[in-house]
Amino acid sequence: MVGNLLLRGMVAGLIAGVLVFAFARFFGEPLVDAAIAFEEAISQAAGQAAEPEIVSRATQAGLGLFTGVIVYSVAIGGLFALVFAFVQGRFSSLSVRGTSAVIAVAAFVAIDIVPAIKYPANPPAVGNSDTISVRTELFFLMIVVSTASMVAAIALARRLTSNYGAWNAAIIASVAFIVFIGLVEHLLPPINEVPENFSAMLLWRFRTTTIAMHMILWSVLGLAFGALAERRLGVGTGVRSAYR
Questions:
Q1: Is the pLDDT of residue 100 over 80?
Q2: Which long-range CB contacts under 8 A does 115-120 form with residues at least 24 apart?
C-alpha cells in the first residue's frame, strides 16, 4: 500500500514540477537575468573583471532549471505521500482528497510562507558571499521551527476538540501558532543585504514569483495526489489507515 502511494506521490510531484518549471522559465528567469545584469554593471563600474561563465545562462535557465525543479518536486511528492500514509486514518477522518489538501496547505504555510516572512528569497546581486553559511543556517532553522510548530498546533487542536469543538480548537491552535512564530521571528537576527540602488520593484517581483512557484507546487501536489490516491484507496471518509 505504502509503495503504491509513494509512486503516486512521485507522479504528482512530476506533474507539479513540470508546471513549476514552465512558470519559473517564463516568469522567473527574466527577473534573474535583470538581477545578473545589475550585478555585472556594478562590477564593471568598480573596475572588476567579469567572472568566467562556467555554465552558460541558456543551460542554467533551461536544462539546469528543469532538472533541479523536477528532482526537487518528485522528492517532495514522495515525502508528501509518506506523510499522507501516516496521517490518513490515524489523525484524519477526512476524505482522501480532503486530507491531501490539508497537508498541502499546512506544508505550504510551514515550509514556505513562514520562513519567507523572516528570510525572503533574494535574486542574484543581493546578499553577501561572506554570510551565505549563516543565512542558510538561519533559513533552515526557521523551516524546522515552523514545521515543528505546525505539527504541535495540529496536535493541540486535536486535544482541544473534545472540549471546545473543532472550530474553536482550530482557532485557539492557530492563534498559538501565530504568537509563537511571531516571537521566534522577532528573536532571530534580521538580515538585510540589499544594495541601496537595487530596484525595489525587481526585488518585490522576484520574491512574489518565488512564492508563486511554491504555491503552484503545493497546490498541484495536493490536488493531483488526492485524485491519484483516491483511485487507489477509494472514495470515502478514509478512516482506515493508509498503511494497512
A1: yes
A2: 115/139, 115/142, 115/143, 115/146, 116/207, 116/210, 116/211, 117/185, 118/142, 118/185, 118/188, 118/190, 119/191, 120/207, 120/210
Phi-psi region of 236 (alpha: psi -120 to 50; beta: other; left: phi over 0): left
Task: Kindly report, residue by residue over 36-65, the tens digit of the pLDDT.
Answer: 888 788 777 666 666 667 778 888 889 999
What grid cell was written down for 15?
506533474
What b/e sequence results for 150-185 when a residue is b if at least 16 CB atoms lie within 10 Å of its CB, and e otherwise? beebbebbeebeeeeeeeebbeebeebbeeebeebb
Q: Rounded to two decimals, what is the model's pTM? A: 0.88
Contact call for residues 235 and 226 (beta carbons, < 8 A):
no
d(CA 84, CA 108): 15
Please state, in angstroms and as integers, the Cα–Cα distance from residue 18 to each residue in 66, 220, 221, following that order: 8, 10, 11
β-pair partners for 92: 88
The dihedral region occupied by 128, where left means phi > 0, alpha psi between -120 and 50, and beta the remainder, is beta
Q: Which residue has the cell 543556517?
A: 137
β-bridge partners, 88: 92
